[in-house]
Amino acid sequence: MDRNVVRMWYRTSLHNGSGSGALVAAFELSSEDKNANQPYLSVFEKSNTTLDQAKIFTGKNLALSLSVSEVRELINPNYPDYRLNICWYRKTVTIGDQIIPDERPGAAGHCGIIGLLRPPNLSRTLWKWFRVRLADIAFSNNPITVL
Questions:
Q1: Cβ 143 vs Cβ 14: under 8 Å
Q2: What is the pLDDT along the chain (147 residues), one digit of tens a residue?
Q3: Is the pTM of this model over 0.70?
Q4: Of 51, 43, 42, which Cα lies nearest the Cα of 105?
Q5: Which pick of 3, 11, 48, 124 has the fewest CB atoms within 10 Å?
Q6: What is the DSSP track for 26-70?
Q7: What CA–CA distance (Å, rounded) separates 19 from 25?
């Protein structure tokens, strides 16, 4: 059984462009993502986290669905030795100066896409291929607005 993950993004991004190109920014690593011990892009596994729960966690209202197998099968023609993967990452919350496990409903579905951080000395333009393909997949899976 293939699992599906959802990346939450901003619904307004679809008004800024047409097609999948409007979604490429959804697959950029934030500064926080880049600084994690293992840099990853936050996603939620759909059988463990509802879209409403994912919206609560992220504050974003557009669900971009990706098949785990499709993500893992992507091969960048410019860098065929580099691959993406999706791994479980325990969702945490910061309370004061402590980082603790997030026990809210849906937190168990938190995952991350690893491999999106561009290795040093590789072309930014050619590395963007991964984000463009993820946006294409998400767009073909019909993004869902979460009200």
A1: yes
A2: 789 999 999 988 877 666 788 899 999 998 888 988 899 999 999 999 999 999 999 999 999 999 999 999 999 999 999 999 999 998 999 999 999 999 999 999 999 999 999 999 999 999 999 999 999 999 999 999 999
A3: yes
A4: 51
A5: 124
A6: GGSPPHHHHTSSS-EEEEEETTTS-HHHHHHHH---EEEEEEHHH
A7: 13
Beta strand 110-114 with 144-145: parallel, antiparallel or unpaired? Answer: unpaired
- Is 40 exposed, middle or buried (CB count within 10 Å of its CB: 0-12, 13-18, 19+)? buried
Around Cβ 68, how many Cβ atoms within 10 Å?
17
Residue 65: φ, ψ to 5°: -90, 140
Four-CA torsion 44, 57, 147, 47, nearest 10 degrees: 30
Residue of 129, 16, 2 lying closest to 65 (CA atoms)? 2
Query: What does the chain come to in residues?
Result: 147
3-state secondary structure of 88: strand
38 burial (CB, 10 Å; 0-12 / 13-18 / 19+) is: exposed
Longest CA span, the chain:
45
Query: The tokens of 47 are what?
Result: 């059988």
